Amino acid sequence: MNRKYRLRKTETIKRVRRLGKSFAHPLIVLSKHPNSDNITRFGIIARKSIGLAVKRNQKKRQLREILREAYPSTKPGWDIIILLRRPSRDATYLELKAAVKSLLVRADLSKVFDAKGNRS
């Protein structure tokens, strides 16, 4: 994923976590908050409960790839935080991809699907 689409500043991530609306899945939690730009930016949080640094970085790389693929079908103007939960450390790439897709639909952030999962 291109760096201009990433949330990197701590204060921005804290703002999204504090003011944003959250959606939960057994593998991940998605928090969204509108921004003033016309682009959507993503931040990924992988706590130590995921594992050692190698495992956390592997999961973050997988999520960045999933989000890179999903970006064209994501509505613009949002800051989104993805928090990895403990069960995600044993999840496959496809399971993470399905979790992200379902949360983007539930959060009404998908251009392709509406909030009920129907094609637009």
Structural notes for this entry:
- With 120 residues, the chain is of the alpha+beta class.
- The protein contains 3 helices and 4 strands, in the order αβββαβα.
- It has helices spanning 10-19, 53-70, 93-106; strands at 21-24, 28-34, 41-45, 78-84.
- A 4-stranded mixed β-sheet has the order 1-2-4-3, with helices on both faces.
- The longest helix is centred in the middle third of the chain and has 18 residues, at 53-70.
- The two termini are 25 Å apart.
What topology emerges from the helices and strands here?
Blueprint: H1 10-19, E1 21-24, E2 28-34, E3 41-45, H2 53-70, E4 78-84, H3 93-106
Parallel strand pairs: 3-4
Antiparallel strand pairs: 1-2, 2-4
Helix pairs in contact: 2-3
Name some characteristics of this structure.
single chain, 120 residues, alpha+beta, 3 helices, 4 strands, 35% helix, globular
Assign the structural class, choosing from mainly alpha, mainly beta, alpha/beta, alpha+beta, or little secondary structure. alpha+beta
CA-to-CA gap between the ends? 25 Å
Order of helices and strands: HEEEHEH
How large is the share of residues in beta strands? 15-25%
Average pLDDT score = 92
Secondary structure: helix percent: 25-40%
- Helix count? 3
Strand order of the largest sheet: 1-2-4-3
Please state the overall shape, judged from the principal axes of the Cα atoms: globular
Radius of gyration over all CA atoms, rounded:
13 Å
Largest sheet: 4 strands, mixed
Number of DSSP-assigned strands: 4
Low-confidence stretches: none
